[in-house]
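Annex B. Sample input.
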Amino acid sequence: MMTPARAAETVPKLDVETSCRDAKTYGTTDPEQTYANCMLDENEAKKQLSQKWSQYKAETRRNCLDEGATPSPSYVEILTCIEMFEETLVPSEGGAVGGAPMGTGIPHDSPLPRPQLSPGPRAMPRA
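Annex B, continued. Sample output.
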């Protein structure tokens, strides 16, 4: 059995297909499109996590693994959790500290907004 500390060393393997299939029943539009959008979001989140996993703080990874694993596994939830708790400052264009360039209407020390998720419901009811 893998310890929590050991589990936080790599991106977990989650069964997001099941939760995306379950999301089809909550869609207000085409259930198949809801499923496709859900899988697209989950695969993109997993890709981002895989690329940057070692750059995230170990404590943040451990804390956020629990967040994304229950009640339905989700890479999107893990990524969102990590982004909320990571304290990374990225230099922006123009030399300002933070993610947003000056003059965008976003405070210069705030990260740029995340790209919009695919259309369709993403929320799963919590038990």
